[in-house]
Amino acid sequence: MGISGLRSRPTRVLLSALGIAIGIAAMIAVVGITTSSRAKLDNELASLGTNLLSVQPGMSLTGQDTTLPAGSTGKVRLIPGVTSAGAVATLPDVKVYRSRLIDPDKSGGIDVQVADLHLLGLLDGTLRQGTWLNRATANYPTVALGSIAADRLGIVTPGSRVWLGSTEFTVVGILDALPLAPELDTSAFIGEAIALERFGWDGKPTTIFERSADEEVEAVRDLLPRTVNPEHPENVSVSRPSDALAAKNAADVAFTGLLVGLGFVALLVGGIGVANTMVISVLERRKEIGLSRALGATRGHIRTQFLVEALLLSTLGGLVGTALGFAVIATFAVTNGWPVSVPPTVFVGGIGVTMLIGAVAGLYPAVRASKTPPTAALNG
Known about the structure:
Strands 1, 2, 3, 4, 5, 6, 7, 8, 9, 10 and 11 form an eleven-stranded mixed beta sheet that branches. Strand 7 and strand 8 form a beta hairpin. 53% of the residues lie in helices and 15% in strands. Helix 8 runs antiparallel to helix 10 and helix 8 runs parallel beside helix 11. It is elongated, with a radius of gyration of 33 Å. The protein is an alpha+beta fold.
């Protein structure tokens, strides 16, 4: 009876189910995209490791900028539990240009970093082209470019020439993006010896990176400020780069909560559409209901019939919405190179919510239909 009632008005049923489908599809898509993004982050953190700490100069008690002492990187390597350490030092007065004819004020925002030879391995970095600095090339005017720096300079292959200040350097390598140190993607890296010879580098690092065993991370973190600057450990700032990725994910989750709320509102609107459809159906089928009552159908039979129609209508919308939501998740994840990761409970819960909304939305029309008297069959 419930199915035949719906089949008699297919267009109205499809439009009402569409409202439910859009709402549940939005909710499932938002949740699924978030879980897929989180799965990608978990894979990334597992690959990059969470045992990388970075050390930077902080602010003095009087609010003045501070610096890390020269030789700090060597001290960090001596801390028990530290497996490797490396550093970069920014040369603020040196700019990078594609040609010596370019206006000195238009450097493209590219920093010049004096890089430790261990830096690339410490950051789990990879090369798009060429090689990283080594003991030989670090002594000569050679440079490795971060991914964004290379794009801004228009460098696509090693062997090209760029200008650091008034000195010509040869590009030996181009890095891929560095997930744990994205601020270095806009940098040009040169060796310590050439930095000392050509630019008078003072030997002070601006950021030290170190890795230690997972179980030693917290102990090393406590020792780093006093090791780097024993006189003023309060001037040393220690952070874990992977925390920034986790914080970004937490912000995404909070934003997802808002989107899920909007999807639930759409679902409620769909539920109201179901209720409206059922009320209209009751009004149009008064003669049919009256005839059924006259032939012996009880109020309970009529109430059950219309409640089943509402449940079927909402379930149809839920199934279509679930399929649509999964299609959106799969498309978005594949496009962004993420794993498709959606807990099965999301689909089960989504269909369950649509059935609950259908039951609530169909309750009033069902009760109203059950109160239709048998004499309604005699009305025109």
